[in-house]
Structure formats: structure tokens, C-alpha cells
Amino acid sequence: MCTCPHIEMCSLFHRTLADLPALATIYRNLYCRDRPDVCARYLIMEKLGRDKVPSSLYPNQIDRADRLIRAG
Ligand code: SF4
To answer: Which candidate, 64, 35, 41, places its Cα nearest to that of 53?
Structure first.
């Protein structure tokens, strides 16, 4: 168990889920505070950089993240 190093500035919470606090809490507990290594957004941040993460990408969209990473 570890906390994501991007948790303070991840746009998922500041923008995409700003009006959905219950869903934001679920993602924080499942990914940000436990398993960031399996978060689609985290993987792109680590491989391509924060500016390459689509605002619409959810943590569970690993297949989409893999495609984006392969495309570079
Ligand atoms: S959504 Fe993913 S990248 Fe964003 S803070 Fe949570 S674990 Fe990190």
C-alpha cells in the first residue's frame, strides 16, 4: 500500500470529478491511497508525462492507457 505522488495535483479530482465527490472518494481509496501502480492515469504520467493524460481518462481504463502509451 502506498499513496500516489500525484494525488495533490491530479486533474481527475480538480476537474473531472469536482462535482462527483462520492465517486472521487471511491477512486482515491481504490487507487490513489492504495494502488497507484495500477491506475491508468498514473501509468501515463510516469511513462509520457502529466500533460499527456486525457482529462477524461479514469483510473480503471488500463486498456486505453496502454494504447496511448504504445502510441507515444
Ligand atoms: S487518479 Fe491515479 S494518477 Fe491521479 S492521484 Fe489517483 S492514483 Fe494518482
So the answer is: 41
